[in-house]
Amino acid sequence: MLPDYQDPLYYRLALTFIKDIGPCRARVLLSHFGNVEAIFKANVKELKFADGLGETLARRIKEQTNDAFAAAEKELNFMQKHNVQALWIEDEQYPQRLKSCQDAPMLLFYKGNANLNETKMVAVVGTRKYTDYGDRLCNDLIEGLKGEDGMIIVSGLAHGIDTVAHKYALKHDLPTVGVLGHGLDRIYPSSNKNLAKDMEQHGGILAEFPSGTLPDKTNFPMRNRIVAGMSDVTIVVESDITGGALITARIAASYNRDVAAFPGRVHDTKSSGCNELIRTNIAAMITGANDLRELMGWQKKSAVQRQLFLNLSPDEQKVIDVLKTKDSVHADELLHLTEMTSSQLASTLLMLEMQELVKALPGKYYRIN
User: Is the overall model pTM greater than 0.85, yes or no?
Assistant: First the structure.
């Protein structure tokens, strides 16, 4: 017999404590049953046919129900005591950029005051063992973004460039959000406790993990997908070839988000990861804030550029009309939707790029500049 909870948050929390239901399966079940309460009320027979779970897995889910509700009640008490918000994937406050990613968490735990759907979300990541060069790049970048409307700096609150990025954001009066690889009942590394408190007042801290979750090594790649998924662009400041920052960059690219990196000296191992991202066209090379603005199309449009939109050829207008419907569109989709030939589309895109109206992204994607 299920507890008669009136607050849907109990059911949402409980769902996250079912070990056999991850974000992707949870989405399928939610779509199938309509709401979380109905998932828990479904019997084994109803469950086993949803998402092709099968009887064994359906029974295992049902066996975890009581423990899941006990954990949910404990977590809700912690949240109420420590002023933690729960952001459910269907809530308006949930990061909408992240929501569009297939493996987005169903529930996020949040302490802070920043709008996670601001107009310019910039992830800044890099090596834990940074150099003076990386420190200077980070400061110059964030100082150059000071005063930018709708700007939030996102990172992982880890040792190194993450910490540097958060500190410089606060120094230059930009809100900053840290995504944690553990529960909100602790801060890791502990040396960042005071920094995290400041961030709660000028940004926030965010996690998909409930209280009591330790900063285990396996949690941090999961954390990285949130950093990448909630951001418009991921910037790698300084990283070696095997750095965790490269994982974040590649995840961002897989989500069709912009990736940028600062170049370094050829023989400098601390920049080898950045140079590799640039060499393989995963990341655009930037040298500062103005390059970032150009990459993202965040410059104020001039009257001349706005006039260009009024003087497009029919083929150019077709492409622009398609690109206006999405953040980015693959060349194959453009070919299908515009009904052009390959050569016709290629020449049209080239003309639009020359007019700086369209930008080519890694992976043959395009967007309005």
Answer: no
Please tell me whether residue 285 adopts helix, strand or coil conformation.
strand
Q: How many CA atoms lie within 13 A of 352 on its CB side?
A: 27
* Sign (positive or negative) of CA dihedral 162, 168, 171, 177: negative
- Note whether 49 and 75 are same-domain residues: yes
What are the DSSP E strand ranges found in 140-290? 151-155, 176-179, 203-207, 233-236, 258-261, 284-285
Element (H, E) at 109: strand 107-112
Q: Kindly state whether residue 87 falls inside one of the protein's structural domains.
A: no
Cβ atoms of residues 320 and 352 within 8 Å: yes
Most confident of 203-207, 304-308, 333-337: 203-207
Is the pLDDT reported for residue 231 higher than 90?
yes
Q: What is the mean pLDDT of the chain?
A: 92
* Structure confidence at residue 366 (pLDDT): 87
Examine the fold and report which residue of 252, 273, 296 is the final residue of a domain before the chain moves on.
296
Beta carbons of 366 and 333 less than 8 angstroms apart: no
Is residue 190 domain-shared with residue 245, that is, in the same domain? Answer: yes
Q: Under a CB-based contact definition with an 8 Å cutoff, are residues 220 and 244 in contact? A: yes
Question: What is the chain's percent helix, strand, coil content, to nearest 5?
Answer: 50, 15, 40
Q: Are residues 224 and 174 in the same domain?
A: yes
| Strand ranges across the sheet with 85-88 | 85-88, 107-112, 203-207, 176-179, 151-155, 120-125, 233-236, 258-261, 284-285
Q: Can you give the residue range of the structural domain that contains 364? A: 303-368
Q: What confidence category does residue 365 fall into, taking pLDDT thresholds of 50, 70 and 90?
A: confident
Are 327 and 196 found together in one domain?
no
pLDDT at residue 306 above 80? no
SS3 of residue 105 by DSSP: coil
pLDDT above 70 for 310? no
Check if the beta carbon of residue 161 is closer than 8 Å to that of residue 274: no
pLDDT tens-place string over residues 281-301: 999 999 999 999 989 988 755
**Mean of pLDDT values over 211-231:** 96
CATH number, domain containing residue 309: 1.10.10.10
60 close to 83: Cβ distance less than 8 angstroms = no
> Do 273 and 193 sit in the same domain of this protein?
yes
